[in-house]
Design goal:
Helices cover 22% and strands 35% of the residues. The protein is of the alpha+beta class.
Length: 167
Protein backbone atom coordinates (compact mmCIF):
# COMPACT_ATOMS: atom_id res chain seq x y z
CA UNK A 1 0.00 0.00 0.00
CA UNK A 2 1.35 3.39 -1.01
CA UNK A 3 1.79 6.02 1.70
CA UNK A 4 -0.36 9.15 1.30
CA UNK A 5 1.66 12.24 0.41
CA UNK A 6 0.42 15.39 2.16
CA UNK A 7 0.91 18.85 0.67
CA UNK A 8 0.33 22.15 2.46
CA UNK A 9 -2.48 24.28 1.11
CA UNK A 10 -1.38 27.90 0.88
CA UNK A 11 -2.69 31.34 0.02
CA UNK A 12 -0.99 33.41 -2.68
CA UNK A 13 1.41 34.84 -0.07
CA UNK A 14 2.64 31.29 0.62
CA UNK A 15 1.14 31.05 4.09
CA UNK A 16 -0.07 27.56 5.03
CA UNK A 17 -3.84 27.45 5.51
CA UNK A 18 -4.44 23.70 5.51
CA UNK A 19 -3.32 20.41 4.00
CA UNK A 20 -4.50 17.97 1.35
CA UNK A 21 -3.31 14.76 -0.26
CA UNK A 22 -1.46 14.64 -3.59
CA UNK A 23 -4.53 12.98 -5.11
CA UNK A 24 -6.83 15.79 -3.90
CA UNK A 25 -4.44 18.48 -5.22
CA UNK A 26 -4.17 16.81 -8.66
CA UNK A 27 -7.86 15.96 -9.06
CA UNK A 28 -8.98 19.20 -10.67
CA UNK A 29 -9.88 20.68 -7.28
CA UNK A 30 -7.52 23.65 -7.91
CA UNK A 31 -6.36 23.57 -4.29
CA UNK A 32 -3.36 25.93 -4.22
CA UNK A 33 -0.24 24.03 -3.12
CA UNK A 34 3.43 25.09 -3.22
CA UNK A 35 6.22 23.72 -5.40
CA UNK A 36 9.87 24.54 -6.01
CA UNK A 37 11.69 25.00 -9.32
CA UNK A 38 15.44 25.28 -9.80
CA UNK A 39 16.98 26.35 -13.11
CA UNK A 40 20.56 25.08 -13.34
CA UNK A 41 22.97 26.88 -15.67
CA UNK A 42 26.56 26.00 -16.51
CA UNK A 43 29.29 28.61 -16.84
CA UNK A 44 28.64 28.87 -20.62
CA UNK A 45 25.05 29.98 -19.91
CA UNK A 46 23.41 26.73 -21.06
CA UNK A 47 20.39 25.48 -19.09
CA UNK A 48 20.00 21.94 -17.78
CA UNK A 49 16.62 20.34 -18.48
CA UNK A 50 15.29 17.07 -17.15
CA UNK A 51 13.24 14.65 -19.23
CA UNK A 52 10.17 13.62 -17.27
CA UNK A 53 9.59 9.92 -16.81
CA UNK A 54 6.92 8.30 -18.96
CA UNK A 55 5.43 7.08 -15.63
CA UNK A 56 4.56 10.62 -14.44
CA UNK A 57 0.85 11.39 -14.07
CA UNK A 58 1.33 14.93 -15.43
CA UNK A 59 3.24 15.75 -18.67
CA UNK A 60 5.04 12.37 -19.09
CA UNK A 61 8.03 12.34 -21.44
CA UNK A 62 8.33 16.13 -21.77
CA UNK A 63 11.44 18.20 -21.11
CA UNK A 64 11.07 20.32 -17.99
CA UNK A 65 12.73 22.62 -15.47
CA UNK A 66 16.10 21.35 -14.15
CA UNK A 67 14.41 20.41 -10.86
CA UNK A 68 10.78 20.67 -9.88
CA UNK A 69 8.91 19.20 -6.99
CA UNK A 70 6.23 19.56 -4.38
CA UNK A 71 6.78 20.92 -0.91
CA UNK A 72 5.70 18.37 1.69
CA UNK A 73 3.45 19.36 4.57
CA UNK A 74 5.64 20.74 7.39
CA UNK A 75 8.62 21.39 5.12
CA UNK A 76 10.10 24.83 4.34
CA UNK A 77 10.68 26.04 0.78
CA UNK A 78 14.46 25.75 1.25
CA UNK A 79 14.21 22.24 2.71
CA UNK A 80 12.03 21.11 -0.20
CA UNK A 81 14.37 22.69 -2.75
CA UNK A 82 17.44 20.95 -1.31
CA UNK A 83 15.58 17.61 -0.98
CA UNK A 84 14.27 17.69 -4.55
CA UNK A 85 17.66 18.65 -6.03
CA UNK A 86 19.32 15.81 -4.09
CA UNK A 87 16.62 13.26 -5.02
CA UNK A 88 16.33 14.16 -8.70
CA UNK A 89 19.93 15.03 -9.66
CA UNK A 90 22.17 13.91 -6.78
CA UNK A 91 23.37 17.48 -6.14
CA UNK A 92 23.96 18.52 -2.52
CA UNK A 93 26.26 21.56 -2.82
CA UNK A 94 24.73 24.53 -4.66
CA UNK A 95 23.84 28.16 -3.99
CA UNK A 96 20.24 28.91 -4.97
CA UNK A 97 19.27 32.44 -5.98
CA UNK A 98 15.58 33.25 -5.48
CA UNK A 99 13.95 34.64 -8.64
CA UNK A 100 10.19 34.84 -8.14
CA UNK A 101 6.98 33.19 -6.96
CA UNK A 102 3.82 32.99 -9.05
CA UNK A 103 0.61 30.99 -9.40
CA UNK A 104 0.50 28.43 -12.22
CA UNK A 105 -2.80 26.80 -13.12
CA UNK A 106 -3.43 23.87 -15.43
CA UNK A 107 -6.56 21.83 -16.08
CA UNK A 108 -5.80 19.55 -13.11
CA UNK A 109 -3.96 21.64 -10.52
CA UNK A 110 -3.03 25.06 -9.18
CA UNK A 111 0.46 25.64 -7.81
CA UNK A 112 2.36 28.41 -6.06
CA UNK A 113 5.72 28.10 -7.84
CA UNK A 114 8.83 29.24 -5.91
CA UNK A 115 11.54 29.68 -8.56
CA UNK A 116 15.31 29.70 -8.08
CA UNK A 117 18.42 29.55 -10.27
CA UNK A 118 22.01 28.47 -9.75
CA UNK A 119 25.24 28.07 -11.67
CA UNK A 120 26.61 24.56 -11.23
CA UNK A 121 29.71 22.89 -12.66
CA UNK A 122 29.73 19.55 -10.82
CA UNK A 123 28.47 16.11 -11.72
CA UNK A 124 24.74 15.69 -12.36
CA UNK A 125 23.29 12.21 -11.85
CA UNK A 126 19.59 12.06 -12.83
CA UNK A 127 17.59 9.59 -10.73
CA UNK A 128 16.61 6.74 -13.04
CA UNK A 129 13.35 6.08 -11.17
CA UNK A 130 12.09 9.68 -11.41
CA UNK A 131 13.59 10.88 -14.70
CA UNK A 132 14.36 9.67 -18.21
CA UNK A 133 17.64 11.61 -18.18
CA UNK A 134 18.63 15.19 -18.77
CA UNK A 135 21.12 17.43 -20.56
CA UNK A 136 22.27 21.00 -21.01
CA UNK A 137 20.54 22.97 -23.77
CA UNK A 138 21.77 26.21 -25.29
CA UNK A 139 19.35 29.11 -24.99
CA UNK A 140 19.07 29.06 -28.82
CA UNK A 141 18.10 25.35 -28.76
CA UNK A 142 15.38 26.05 -26.21
CA UNK A 143 14.14 29.11 -28.13
CA UNK A 144 13.96 27.09 -31.38
CA UNK A 145 12.01 24.28 -29.68
CA UNK A 146 9.35 26.45 -28.00
CA UNK A 147 5.77 25.73 -29.07
CA UNK A 148 6.61 22.30 -30.52
CA UNK A 149 5.17 20.16 -27.70
CA UNK A 150 8.68 19.25 -26.51
CA UNK A 151 8.56 21.08 -23.18
CA UNK A 152 6.01 21.19 -20.38
CA UNK A 153 3.71 24.23 -20.67
CA UNK A 154 4.85 25.38 -17.22
CA UNK A 155 8.53 25.34 -18.25
CA UNK A 156 7.81 27.21 -21.49
CA UNK A 157 5.83 29.93 -19.74
CA UNK A 158 8.41 30.34 -16.99
CA UNK A 159 11.40 30.28 -19.38
CA UNK A 160 9.92 32.92 -21.67
CA UNK A 161 9.02 35.20 -18.78
CA UNK A 162 12.27 34.85 -16.84
CA UNK A 163 14.94 34.38 -19.46
CA UNK A 164 13.69 35.48 -22.89
CA UNK A 165 11.77 38.61 -21.92
CA UNK A 166 15.07 40.07 -20.67
CA UNK A 167 17.09 39.36 -23.83
Amino acid sequence: MQKTEWFPLVNEAGETIGKASRRECHSGSKLLHPVVHLHIFNEAGDIYLQKRSMNKDIQPGKWDTSVGGHIDYGETVEEALRREVREELGITDFNPEYLTSYVFESSVEKELVNTFRTIYTGIIQPDENELDGGRFWTIAEVRNSLGKNIFTPNFETEFIRLFLAKT
